[in-house]
UniProtKB/TrEMBL annotation, chains A, B:
Lineage, top ranks: Bacteria, Bacillati, Bacillota, Bacilli, Bacillales
Stretches assigned to the Nudix hydrolase domain: 28-183
Organism: Paenibacillus borealis
PROSITE patterns: NUDIX (PS51462)
The protein's name in its UniProt record: ADP-ribose pyrophosphatase
Gene3D superfamilies xref list: Nucleoside Triphosphate Pyrophosphohydrolase, Winged helix-like DNA-binding domain superfamily/Winged helix DNA-binding domain
Length: 302, 302
DNA sequence: TAAATAGTGTCTGTTAGACAGTATTTT
DNA sequence: AAAATACTGTCTAACAGACACTATTTA
């Protein structure tokens, strides 16, 4: 239909236009990707009859250069002009973990003008979920500056103000990241407001100890997203090894959701998301547990 | 704690570093924002005793320049180096609608290398929801090239292939946009796959009639997001006028969700999201209906 | 009285939460 | 037997879907 050359007001066809197009000299922001790579690790118990505890871990890199020299940042890097955002993210992911097939999703793009003191940088954040048992090589073996940090977070304080045409609500969320050697912590204020018909959410770092850039805010956002998606999708299985017990699965739900679940209700709820196998755990110091695998072939996994 | 100057391997402090930092000459992508501005409009009925039908509308701009000259695109524009992404989005929003206080949220950032034939452009898409009655000036009055299009979409075909380690599932979604003068339509293929432990979602435009760039994909994504969020947040009230009947509210839910709802269950469900007023509709040709307003002051509106 | 929409009452089946109880293993 | 976890049965309350019914207005 529109195959005969369309010409613009100067009588130029699209082909001619593109041939002579000059991308111009406007100043442009730099674009980076930042990766939130999560996994679940086990902490050995001193009482071997007890189950090992699990924790959610995030990979951070200690900066070796200005700015924020010595502080911890999310792994990431600049997006080249000849690679897509997803390709840049996969490249970074592979650089850090040495594995290729990892669950990854785009989270949010951070575009405040002053978020990087060097220059204008817009950063697109991605979340990746890795099964710890697939990390054959400990990530960061080569990079002595990378480390896994246990993630914990709590709501310090929540307040609410009624306004004439709505309300405004603050949450102060304390995030603590703990590695073998360092403990980092900071507070993000999340403000939710409704004014007339306009609702808004704003984030602000109100305290930060050891985090580079605005990365603490990205961590808070990612935890929020992970929590949300765990309830209505199957992404949690990206954090699980191929075989797992229902108790293990329940623990992982619990650490992500930050609350305890009742075993009976939990089992009913996830029954159709998993498949029984013939295998059991062994040498557990107590009754063995049946092993399950993810059942990806059920009716709907929206 | 870290207030004494930290110096890098060359003995340079952060302050000195930033003073002499050269942003460099690496090629950089351009960054744009693209706005998905939705509203709900009423179509007059020929039988005045019947209720007017509602429809979801999207604002598009007809391109007056290459590339895609004459085709329809989302309103948007380049992000300046001295404005944040949100600021750029608000600026575009104001340019198109002449109103300032509009609900807006970031959706997704599109970063394929070839998405713009001129040069490398990364585009951050935002969704905005406007109450039609707040559009005092018909948007596009000044810009003769802007028009509201009624949005409809249907699943043409869905197929599923079982793979060794999972499955792959396609949905062909047909999107039709209809204005006073033009009808545009296209098909987006959404592929969801699970391979071992890695799940992925990919989108592809398989047919497109009159849409510029990859904007049809953005439309599909936005509809999906709107549908999702309508079920677990209160964003729908951003599309409603200050006073509305429960039937009207139900219609808007129905056109967004694409299915009919039962009045009794619907009223129970939204009971605590709305507040009764003393007013009624008038001159309706049938029993008047009580008017409600959004109740933003309830326990939790997550 | 008919047409049209507004609004309510109630049955039914499903599901989440709570909790008590049973089962199986190792020390 | 004690310690530890695995797993099941059942009661209850909440809630969504279905559908019939009542209410109110105008032409």
């Amino acid at each position: 239909m529109s195959k005969q050359p369309v010409t613009d007001r100067n009588g130029i066809t699209e082909e001619q236009f593109l041939k002579t197009y000059d991308a111009g000299v406007y100043e442009r922001p730099s674009v980076t990707v930042d990766m939130l790579i999560f996994t679940v690790m086990e902490r050995e118990q001193n009482n071997y009859r007890k189950l090992s505890e699990k924790s959610l871990q995030l990979l951070l890199i200690q900066r070796g250069e200005h700015p924020y020299l010595g502080q911890w940042a999310l792994p990431g890097g600049f997006v080249g002009v000849h690679e897509s955002l997803d390709e840049a993210a996969r490249r970074e992911l592979f650089t850090e973990t040495n594995i290729d097939n990892i669950y990854m999703e785009q989270l949010y793009t951070w575009g405040e003008v002053q978020r990087d003191p060097r220059m204008r940088v817009i950063s697109c954040s991605y979340m990746a979920l890795v099964d710890r048992t697939a990390l054959n090589v400990q990530a960061g073996d080569d990079a002595a500056d990378a480390a896994w940090f246990e993630v914990s977070h709590e709501i310090l304080e929540a307040s609410r103000r009624e306004l004439e045409q709505g309300y405004e609500q603050d949450q102060f969320i304390k995030i603590t990241l703990q590695s073998d050697k360092v403990t980092l912590s900071g507070v993000v204020k999340v403000t939710e407001s409704v004014q007339g018909h306009v609702s808004k959410i704003q984030r602000e770092i109100v305290q930060s100890e050891g985090f580079a850039f605005d990365h603490l805010m990205m961590v808070q956002y990612a935890i929020e997203r992970l929590r949300g998606k765990v309830e209505y999708t199957d992404i949690i299985f990206n954090l699980m090894p191929p075989l797992f017990t229902l108790s293990e699965l329940q623990r992982v739900y619990e650490i992500i959701l930050g609350k305890e679940l009742l075993a009976a209700a939990f089992r009913r709820k996830i029954a159709d998301r998993v498949m029984e196998t013939e295998d059991f755990t062994r040498d557990a110091g107590h009754r063995p547990s049946k092993l399950y695998r993810y059942n990806m072939n059920r009716a709907s996994n929206q």
